[in-house]
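agent: user wants the structure for Ribosome biogenesis protein Nop10 from Natrialba taiwanensis DSM 12281. delegating to structure tool.
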Amino acid sequence: MKSDIRVCSAWRDRHDRPRYSLSETCPDCGAPTENSAPAPFNPEDPYGEYRRALKRRTR
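agent: tool returned. relaying tokens verbatim.
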């Protein structure tokens, strides 16, 4: 599921707390916004193969 909630990319410099928005720009300072959710996985995960194997064994 794609997250539509975005956070101001410059909130650490310009705001006292994160500013969330649904638009491409921050409504307070005009800086671009970025997706607030972290990436669901890292394709270069060196331990992914082992984690998936362990998950299959424990089911």
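agent: one observation worth passing along. The CA atoms of residues 25 and 31 lie 6 Å apart.
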